[in-house]
Design a protein that fits this description.
This protein has 488 residues and is mostly helical. Among the domains are: 197 residues, Serine Threonine Protein Phosphatase 5, Tetratricopeptide repeat (Alpha Horseshoe), CATH 1.25.40; 79 residues, no CATH class. It is 44% helix and 7% strand. The strands form 4 sheets. A two-stranded antiparallel sheet has the order 1-2. A two-stranded antiparallel ribbon has the order 3-5. Helix 7 runs antiparallel to helix 8, helix 8 runs antiparallel to helix 9 and helix 9 packs antiparallel against helix 14. The relative contact order is 0.13.
C-alpha cells in the first residue's frame, strides 16, 4: 500500500463543496454511502480508506493514533518491558489511570470508525453492478477481515463491546447500543475471518502491498483461537500458513527490520507507512532525545526498562533489537541514557524534517509469530512437547543466535528434553524477546494470567480487574446503555 495514496472517507455522510448558496440544498453535491458506491474506482477508494484507519500519523485527528501510537501505550508501555513518562502514558504504565485517559478513547474511536468503514464495504460493495464477481467478493472479504481485526482488539482490551455489523449512515443511528457478550463478539470475529479466508487472494501485487490475503486471515484466526485456548484449532490454522509456502522467516534478524525488506515473506500483514503520504513516527519516538540524525534529535517517548534489557538473553537478536549508543554517518556519537528499541531506526533516511514522516511499517502479523503460536498450541495439546513444536520453537532460537551470520552467539540454546511446563516457559520467553515493541506483550500477559505478577515491581497499584481496560469515559457519557467494567 506504500504506492497507494491513502484516502480518508467519512464514517457517516460526506458533503462536498459545490453549492453556490450554502443554505440552498443541491442534491448533486450531497454524497452519502448510498449513492457514493457506483464504480470500481469508488469501491477501491473505499477499500483504501478502510485500511487508512490503521494509522495515519496526522495528529490533528486523535483517532488516527491507533497503530501509529496508542497501541504501543496499551500493549507495551503497560507491561514490564517499556515505559513512557508523560502523565497520560505513565499512568498506564503504573495502572493509576481512570476511564478518562485519552488513549482508551482514541483506540475506541479508531476501532469503531474502522468498523463502520468495513461495514460500508460489506453493505454497499455488493450493489456495484459494474464489478466482477471476483472483485466484489474480495472487497467484501477485506471489509470482514478489517472488521474482525478491530473487534478482536476491542474485545481483548475492553471485554464485550457494542456489536455493530451494519453501516451507520446518520449521526443519530445506533447511539444507545448496549455491550454484546464476550461470546457474541468472538463469534462475530471468527465468522468474519472464516468467510474472509475463503475469498481473499493468495497474494497481492506490489502495488497493493498492505492489503489482506487469505494467509493474513488465517494467521489472525489462529491468534483468536489461541486467545480462546482452542489449542487444536489454533495449531491447525498455523499449520495451514506454514504449509502454504507463501511465508517464511527472513534468515537474518537484522535484515528483517530494514525498510527495503518490508515486503519480505515474513511480513504477513502490516500497518503500512509511506513518507509524504501517510508516514509513521516510530523512528523518532523510539530514539532517545539527543540521537543524531533523527527528527528533533529524537523524542525518547518509548523507553525500554533497564531490568527487562538486563534479563534479555545475550544473543545476536539482542544486539539487533536494542542499542545503547549510536554513531551517525557524520561521526557523531551519542551514548543513550537507557536502552533503546532499535527495530524502527532507519539509517537510510536521516534528518527528515517532519517527525511524523517516517517510512517504517509496523508488523501486525509476521511469520515468527505463527511459529511461536504453533509451538505453544501444539504443546498444550499433548502430555509432552511434540517434535513439531520443538522444530518450530528452535527455528526462532536459531535465528536469534544469528545462525549463518558472522556474529553468531551461543545463546539462546535449542530446546530439548523438556517437560510440558518447561517447554511452555521457553515459548513464553521467546515470545517476550522476539516480539518486543510490536504490540503483543499485554495481550500475551493477560491470556497467560501473568499480568499482575509481571507488573508488581513497576505498578504496585495494579489490581485483578486491570486485565480489562475501562470503557472510555466519553463513551459512557454518550451511550447510557453501556456498563463500566468492574474496578472502574
Amino acid at each position: 500500500m506504500k504506492t497507494l495514496k491513502l484516502l480518508l472517507l467519512s464514517a457517516a455522510t460526506l458533503v462536498l463543496p459545490g453549492c453556490q448558496n450554502f443554505l440552498t440544498e443541491n442534491p448533486v453535491s450531497l454524497i452519502t454511502p448510498e449513492n457514493f458506491y457506483q464504480t470500481e474506482a469508488d469501491a477501491n477508494a473505499a477499500v483504501v480508506g478502510a485500511y487508512e484507519i490503521l494509522g495515519n500519523a496526522n495528529r490533528t485527528a486523535d483517532y488516527r493514533k491507533y497503530y501509529n501510537f496508542s497501541t504501543f501505550i496499551l500493549n507495551d508501555v503497560s507491561t514490564e518491558q517499556m515505559v513512557a513518562l508523560r502523565a497520560d502514558r505513565f499512568e498506564v504504565h503504573t495502572y493509576t489511570f481512570s476511564p478518562a485517559n485519552p488513549h482508551f478513547e482514541w483506540v475506541w474511536q479508531a476501532c469503531y470508525i474502522g468498523i463502520n468503514r468495513a461495514n460500508e464495504l460489506v453493505d454497499y460493495i455488493p450493489r456495484i453492478s459494474t464489478l466482477t464477481d471476483e472483485r466484489r467478493a474480495r472487497y467484501v472479504a477485506e471489509g470482514k477481515f478489517l472488521r474482525a481485526l478491530h473487534y478482536f482488539n476491542l474485545v481483548r482490551w475492553f471485554g464485550g463491546v457494542p456489536l455493530r455489523t451494519r453501516a451507520t449512515t446518520q449521526v443519530q443511528d445506533d447511539v444507545q447500543v448496549p455491550r454484546a457478550s464476550l461470546e457474541d463478539v468472538y463469534a462475530q470475529v471468527i465468522k468474519d475471518l472464516q468467510e474472509a479466508e475463503a475469498v481473499l487472494p493468495d497474494q497481492v501485487p506490489t502495488s497493493e502491498r498492505g492489503r489482506a490475503t487469505r494467509w493474513a486471515a488465517k494467521t489472525l484466526l489462529a491468534k483468536v483461537f489461541l486467545t480462546q485456548k482452542n489449542w487444536t484449532a489454533a495449531a491447525a490454522k498455523c499449520k495451514e500458513v506454514m504449509d502454504s509456502g507463501r511465508h517464511d522467516l527472513v534468515p537474518d534478524y537484522a535484515e528483517l527490520w530494514k525498510v527495503a525488506n518490508e515486503g519480505s515473506r515474513e511480513h504477513i500483514f502490516s500497518r503500512e507507512a509511506k513518507a509524504n503520504v501517510a508516514g509513521s513516527l516510530y523512528q523518532p519516538f523510539f530514539a532517545p532525545t539527543g540521537t543524531p540524525g533523527t527528527p528533533d534529535t529524537g523524542y525518547g517517548v518509548f523507553r525500554i526498562l533497564q531490568a527487562y534489557f538486563d534479563a534479555y538473553t545475550l544473543s545476536y537478536r539482542k544486539s539487533v533489537t536494542f542499542a545503547t549508543r549510536y554513531t551517525s554517518p557524520a561521526g557523531q556519537t551519542f551514548v543513550f541514557p537507557y536502552p533503546a528499541c532499535w527495530k524502527y531506526f532507519d539509517e537510510t533516511r536521516l534528518n527528515f524534517a517532519n517527525a511524523e514522516d517516517g517510512d517504517n511499517n509496523l508488523p501486525i502479523l509476521r511469520y515468527a509469530d505463527v511459529l511461536l503460536m504453533y509451538a505453544e498450541a501444539l504443546n498444550e495439546t499433548a502430555a509432552t512437547p511434540p517434535a513439531d513444536a520443538y522444530a518450530a520453537l528452535n527455528r526462532i532460537k536459531a535465528r536469534a543466535r544469528g545462525e549463518g551470520t558472522a556474529r553468531r552467539t551461543p545463546l539462546p540454546a535449542d530446546a530439548a528434553g523438556l517437560t510440558k511446563e518447561a517447554f511452555r516457559e521457553e515459548v513464553y520467553k521467546e515470545r517476550s524477546e522476539e516480539l518486543v515493541g510490536e504490540n503483543h506483550r499485554w495481550f500475551d500477559l493477560v491470556r497467560w494470567g501473568r499480568l499482575l505478577d509481571a507488573k508488581r515491581a513497576t505498578a504496585p497499584a495494579i489490581k485483578a480487574t486491570n486485565v480489562l481496560y475501562p470503557i472510555p469515559q466519553r463513551e459512557m457519557d454518550l451511550n447510557k446503555a453501556l456498563t463500566q467494567n468492574p474496578g472502574y
